[in-house]
Amino acid sequence: MLIAKGFHALTVPEYIETWFSAPGALIGRTVVCRRGDFFSISYSCAESEQLRILCSYKVCRRSKMLFTWRRDIALDRCSSLVKIRLEGDFGRTAVHVTHLGLEPSDRQWHQDLWESSLRKMRKLF
Question: Residue 47: what pLDDT?
Fold first, then answer.
């Protein structure tokens, strides 16, 4: 995937809606809203009502993004930090995600989310 396409896939709400894959989320039930440097990802799961992830960009460049991340169900906890780096040339782009500051109980859920989401993103391009 080209870096420009990768950047758009990570920042344009309509693209995020196609690749975002939270564990247990229902297909086609994800809505992303973005206002400036803030965005929210709302999704539905079979066993619960609508859930949200709230994010705020700290750095947003074509090859590097850094943003805060907080799950709706964890509002009593501090935000975690997501680092995304796009690397490559015109033929291929690799997406590297590092998610820092997660509670031990949340790590597996987030690992599943990122692995599934990146697989879906790869299929788009």
Answer: 73
Is pLDDT above 80 for 2?
no
Q: Which amino acid is at 64?
A: K
Note down the domain range covering 71.
Answer: 3-124
Read off the CATH number of the domain in which 100 is found.
3.30.530.20
Q: How far is CA 86 from CA 25, 26, 94, in A?
A: 26, 28, 6
Spatial strand order in the sheet of 64-71: 25-35, 38-45, 48-60, 64-71, 80-88, 93-100
* Cα–Cα distance for residue pair 31/27, rounded to 1 Å: 11
Beta strands at 38-45 and 80-88: parallel, antiparallel or unpaired: unpaired
Cα–Cα distance for residue pair 11/60, rounded to 1 Å = 9
Whether this model's pTM surpasses 0.70: yes
Residue 71 half-sphere exposure toward CB, CA atoms < 13 A? 16
Number of domains in the chain: 1
